């Protein structure tokens, strides 16, 4: 019986994507944790930064998380005085989340960390390669109908 050909790990594009992604994500996680937040908290703060208030259900949809996970994340950010939670307008059964001034002041700092992390890993690439790589990754996500930002 002939032996089946088994591909090597390194033969798969997913192997290389994961290797790069792990390094980029780990470095960014260390950077934001140095500022007292997790990556998921940074994503929530960034989403809230552009809004006056958002319902947790809307955040859950935008972030690709469950409502329970959003609630726990919001609890942590409320405890850090970076987000406020209030009763919804017109319906006290609903809640709204809003970024505080402290949270609003932190977002640009965290954004600079994200920019520097990207530069650390990708600045050596020519601009056409960077934009091509981004276009390819966005195309894959669009084809698979995946919209939520990575939070872990």
Give a summary of the structure in a few sentences:
The protein has 152 residues and is mostly helical. The chain has one domain: Arc Repressor Mutant, subunit A (Orthogonal Bundle), CATH 1.10.10.
- For this structure, what is the CATH class? Mainly Alpha
Number of strands: 2
3D shape: globular
- How many domain modules? 1
Query: Radius of gyration from the CA trace?
Result: 19 Å
Structural notes for this entry:
With 152 residues, the protein is mainly alpha-helical. It has one domain: Arc Repressor Mutant, subunit A (Orthogonal Bundle), CATH 1.10.10.10. Helix content is 61%, strand content 10%. Helix 1 packs across helix 5 and helix 2 crosses helix 5.
Keywords:
about 150 residues, Arc Repressor Mutant, subunit A, 6 helices, about 10% strand
Topology summary:
Elements: H1 13-33, H2 39-49, H3 56-63, H4 67-79, E1 83-88, E2 91-99, H5 101-122, H6 127-143
Antiparallel strand pairs: 1-2
């Amino acid at each position: 019986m002939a032996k089946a050909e088994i591909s090597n790990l390194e033969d798969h594009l997913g192997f290389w994507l994961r290797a790069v992604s792990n390094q980029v994500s780990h470095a960014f996680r260390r950077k934001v944790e140095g500022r007292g937040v997790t990556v998921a908290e940074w994503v929530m703060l960034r989403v809230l930064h552009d809004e006056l208030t958002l319902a947790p259900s809307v955040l859950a949809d935008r972030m690709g998380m469950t409502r329970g996970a959003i609630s726990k994340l919001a609890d942590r950010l409320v405890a850090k005085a970076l987000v406020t939670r209030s009763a919804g307008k017109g319906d006290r059964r609903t809640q709204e989340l809003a970024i505080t001034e402290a949270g609003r002041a932190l977002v640009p700092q965290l954004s600079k960390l994200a920019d520097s992390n990207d530069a650390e890993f990708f600045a050596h690439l020519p601009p056409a390669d960077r934009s091509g790589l981004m276009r390819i990754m966005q195309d894959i996500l669009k084809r698979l109908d995946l919209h939520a930002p990575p939070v872990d």
